[in-house]
Structures are given as C-alpha cells and as structure tokens.
Amino acid sequence: MDTLAIVILNYNGQPFLAKFLPTVLANADGHPVYVADSASSDSSVSFLKANFPAVRIIELPRNDGYAGGYNLALEHIRTHFGGATYYVLPNSDIEVTPGWLSPVLDLLKANPNIAACQPKIRSYNQRDLFEHAGAAGGYVDWLGYVFCRGRIFATFETDLGQYDDNRQVFWATGACLFMRADVFHQTGGFDGSFFAHMEEIDWCWRIQRLGYEVWACGQSTVYHVGGGTLHKSNPHKTFLNYRNSLFMLYKNWPADGRLWPKIMLRLVLDGASSILFLKVGQWRDVWAIIRAHFAFYGSLPRLHSQRNTLKAQQTKEVSLFPHSIVWKYFAEGKKTFKEM
C-alpha cells in the first residue's frame, strides 16, 4: 500500500494537464500520480499516454462529476492498485509548489483524528490573493452559507501570513483536498447526488459528526486557476451551488426542531439573492435558482432517509458559525475573517 496517492480528476482538461501536470510530477516526492479521466471527448487520454508515461491513468466510463468521479476513481485505486493511506485530490488547474506535501502529511500523521486537510489556496492569476475555492479553510454559518478565512463573498484578502497557522476548520476545499483513505471509504465517499460543488463540505460535515476533525495547514501553499471545468458565470454552477447547499443543510442540520424554519428562511434569502442577478440581466441564473429549489423539493424523500441514517450514526454534535455571514458582511460591513 502506498502512503499517499495523488489523484487528479479530469474532464476535457487537456490544456490544464499540459500546463500543470509537470509541476505535480516534479513535486510528487516519489508518490504515485493518477489521472482519472471522466470519459473526456477531447484528447486528454491519448495526450497522457503519449507524454506522461509515469502517470497511472484510470479511464472512467462516464462523467459523474466531482463527487461520483472521485468515488469511482478512489475505489478503483483501492481495489486495483493496493490503495493508499492518504489521498490528495488536486484539481487539474492547480499549480503545486515545492514542499507542498510534507507539511500536510506531517500534520495528518501527528494527529490520527484529522481525516481531512487542505493547504492555503491562492489565486494563480493574482498570486498574492487568496482564491475563491477554499482560501485558508472554510466555515458554515447557521443558515448553511459557506465562507473562508481569506475570502468572504467578493472580498479576497492578500496573503500576508495571517493564516500561516495550522488550525481546525469546518471544511477543507475540494480544490486540493487531503484525506485519510480509510475514513473516506468508511463513510461511503462523497454524496454522488451532488454531482459537483459542496460535496466536500457535506463530507466534512458528516465526518465531524463521527468524531473526526478537519484542518487547514498554513505551511503548504498551492495556486488555483478556478472555474477550469465549470466557470463561475455558468448558470449550471448557480444551480448546483444553490441546490447542493439545501441538500447539505437538510441532511446534516441537528435534530433540534429548527430545521424547517431555517430552510424556509434560506428559501426566502435565496429568492432575494436573485434580485442581484436580475439587476445585471442574468435571467438564466434566476431560473437556475428556481430550478434548484424545485430539485430540492423533489429530493426530500431521499434526503429525509439520508438524514435519519446520518442521525443514527452520529457520535458528536458539530458547531456551526453562530451568526449570519450574510448579515455580518452586507449589513454590518465586516469583510474579513478577523472582523467576524
């Protein structure tokens, strides 16, 4: 069994593989590098075979998104390659740096209770700034809205070393997610119904309910392009983010009798947020929010079953950020994590 498997999920990302895979291989520290291809229609697989013989290629039968794709790929590694103690899942548009692996692995090895971890995520194009997808570790507020140290809504902090510590957080980003392999498989992996976006946050919430911890490692840094597979301006991304946020909240919110009041308030706030899209003429995003709500209603029987199962398995209560990040940011004008 390998100590670490570096696993990149790819879908029609041949240009990103050409650009960033060499740095991953150069800084793999002897660990195997896998590319799991989700039935790409471009030349990704032939390109890999011709140019990167050291890469272990997994050809998946279809595109099941981030969640389903990694579920299939990591199970394949376990059953066909002998598995690994840890996985790291860098996006195909991640530029790694020398020494990026050791600090995170040292942290995981020192504390067996840490099941997920991330490095600092900085912007590839504005290299001093934290990047949208994860920044320096994430949190979830009491209404299920997510935010990060270093990035809250449209405010991106400059990395001045303020988050160079190792710290327990609520979620670690899927853009470059380190995880303990046995915990991933024990928990059934990601929820495939999410397809993409927030599946890692849902998984981090679930593993904390089982008593594990999630951390951010400030001694490791990578750079992320962002939107490599699905750009932020794509209405389908809006749909996935709004729908999956509701999925996650319904599945995991504590059984304290306040679930439905929170869901109803979220639905109202989601509706209000559509006004921002209307102001700039993004009608397709407004329709995406409406579709996300109806998709949530249609999934309630399955979500209710999942909620009951997770409740029966839970061994620990999990605390959320006790305030509304929306109110803090837009009403109180608090734009950085330190101000929160």
TrEMBL record:
The keyword Glycosyltransferase belongs to this UniProt entry's keyword annotation: yes
Gene3D superfamilies xrefs: Spore Coat Polysaccharide Biosynthesis Protein SpsA, Chain A
TM region(s), chain numbering: none
KW Hydrolase (keyword) present: no
An MF annotation (GO) of this entry: glycosyltransferase activity
UniProt entry keywords in alphabetical sequence: Glycosyltransferase, Transferase
SUPFAM superfamilies associated with the record: Nucleotide-diphospho-sugar transferases (SSF53448)
Location of the Glycosyltransferase 2-like domain: 6-185
Pfam families: Glycos_transf_2
Family annotation (InterPro entries): Glyco_trans_2-like, Nucleotide-diphossugar_trans
Similarity annotation: Belongs to the glycosyltransferase 2 family.
Protein name, UniProt field: Glycosyltransferase 2-like domain-containing protein
Native source organism of the sequence: Spirosoma fluviale
Lineage of origin: Bacteria, Pseudomonadati, Bacteroidota, Cytophagia, Cytophagales
